[in-house]
């Protein structure tokens, strides 16, 4: 009669792996969270190096030869993956900074003086992302959709034009829904782009500078040779300006009204026609996508109708918003002026879409491509192929 030891040896000889016991199984299952925690800790402590690596990878996907023709799906997948990884890193750093601060208060206190070094956009988005879990989740969904929309269109195009335009309309509908939710969560305040706070410039050691030096470090570089450290407090007095630079030196240290406003006061609450204009602005890309999807496929590129419909909705939204502000953006808060100017600049993208590109811009791009050096011309040709064949390549919202 064979003993238990003999039976175990026979199982090992047959090549079968021994059965995992419960403690071993638990240790194996616990490995991925440990690795992820180590990775998170590495990113938090080496934020600047990680940002440089992300930038290098992102730049590489832009200049890979034949990026948009032979291996468009693979290279766009790499590009989207880098963008999603960057978003994950942003959320890690945001979580690290919010956990180190006592609360998402927007008021200026000695403990929160580091907020003065942040941009108005960062202060506003950080406030809402820290205050509202729903805002943060919706903004993350919106960002993920924006990073993968072109990849989804490339995938759908390989399965037919009908599926492609269904995917395009669905993606635009999801983005519009997310923006309408953000508008509701922020109590009808204008949307800012991006909805999540952008990554702040990290310090070499991964830690923020001390509160007493943040404002000076952000606005005026120090000269170590002329600095003087006070022996009792340890604080550092900045260097004196040059004789001809006294005015700019003093102005750089003056706090504006926006620097001390609570985050909720950085944007006005929209009412009446201003709120209607914001909703129209959000729905304009969806209207344009629906108009393109309903156009005859043989005339889709050259038809002016969908282009005029989409542009008209966006112009109507802009004109209505301007009329609600007494015909001038002068009374807008600084952050709202920045967003207003950004939206004005993105209006130029309409020249790269639909009939405007086909009838007006395409010939100009081709002429420029033939006159530039070969390597630059190759990259421009790849982008020309992208602009001609994919809807989301010129999406600005």
List unreliable stretches of 5+ residues.
Answer: 11-18, 102-117, 202-222
Order of helices and strands: HHHHHHHHHEEHHHHHHH
Distance between the termini: 77 Å
* Number of helices, where a helix is a run of at least 4 consecutive DSSP H or I residues: 16
Q: What Rg do the Cα atoms give?
A: 27 Å
Helix fraction by DSSP (H/I, runs of at least 4): 55-70%
Strand order of the largest sheet: 1-2
Residues in β-strands, percent: under 5%
Could you say which overall geometry the principal axes of the C-alpha atoms support? globular
Q: How many strands appear in the DSSP assignment?
A: 2
Classify the secondary structure makeup into a structural class.
mainly alpha
Overall pLDDT: 80
Most strands sheet: 2 strands, antiparallel
Protein architecture, described:
The chain is an all-alpha fold and about 400 residues long. Helices cover about 65% and strands about 0% of the residues. It has 16 helices and two strands. The chain has helices at about 5-15, 20-30, 30-45, 45-65, 70-100, 120-130, 135-155, 160-185, 210-220, 245-250, 255-260, 275-295, 305-325, 335-345, 355-370, 375-390; strands at about 230, 235. The longest helix is centred in the N-terminal third of the chain and has 29 residues, at about 70-100. The protein starts with a helix and ends in an 8-residue tail after the last helix.
């Amino acid at each position: 009669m064979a003993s238990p030891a003999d039976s175990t040896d026979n199982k090992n000889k047959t090549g079968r792996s021994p059965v995992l016991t419960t403690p071993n199984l638990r240790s194996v299952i616990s490995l991925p969270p440990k690795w992820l925690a180590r990775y998170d800790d590495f990113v938090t402590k080496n934020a600047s190096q990680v940002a440089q690596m992300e930038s290098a990878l992102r730049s590489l996907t832009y200049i890979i030869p034949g990026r948009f023709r032979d291996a468009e799906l693979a290279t766009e997948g790499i590009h989207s993956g880098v963008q999603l990884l960057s978003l994950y890193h942003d959320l890690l750093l945001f979580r690290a900074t919010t956990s180190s601060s006592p609360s998402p208060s927007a008021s200026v206190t000695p403990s929160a003086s580091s907020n003065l070094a942040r941009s108005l956009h960062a202060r506003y988005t950080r406030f809402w992302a820290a205050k509202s879990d729903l805002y943060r989740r919706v903004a993350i969904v919106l960002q993920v959709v924006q990073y993968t929309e072109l990849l989804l269109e490339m995938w759908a195009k390989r399965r037919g034009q009908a599926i492609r335009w269904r995917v395009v309309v669905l993606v635009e509908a999801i983005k519009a829904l997310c923006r309408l939710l953000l508008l509701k969560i922020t109590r009808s305040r204008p949307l800012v782009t991006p909805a999540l706070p952008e990554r702040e410039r990290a310090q070499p050691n991964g830690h923020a500078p001390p509160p007493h030096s943040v404002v000076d470090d952000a606005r005026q570089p120090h000269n170590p040779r002329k600095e003087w450290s006070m022996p009792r407090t340890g604080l550092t007095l900045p260097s004196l300006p040059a004789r001809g630079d006294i005015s700019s030196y003093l102005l750089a240290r003056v706090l504006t009204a926006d620097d001390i406003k609570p985050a909720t006061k950085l944007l006005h609450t929209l009412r009446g026609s201003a709120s209607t204009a914001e909703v129209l602005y959000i729905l304009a890309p969806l209207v344009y996508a629906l108009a393109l999807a309903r156009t005859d496929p043989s005339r889709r590129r050259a038809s002016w109708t969908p282009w005029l419909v989409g542009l008209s909705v966006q112009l109507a939204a802009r004109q209505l918003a301007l009329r609600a502000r007494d015909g001038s953006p002068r009374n807008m808060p600084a952050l709202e002026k920045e967003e207003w100017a950004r939206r004005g600049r993105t209006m130029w993208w309409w020249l790269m879409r639909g009939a405007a590109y086909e009838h007006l811009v395409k010939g100009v791009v081709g002429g420029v491509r033939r006159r530039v050096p070969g390597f630059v011309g190759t990259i421009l040709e790849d982008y020309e192929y992208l602009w001609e064949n994919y809807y989301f390549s010129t999406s600005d919202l």
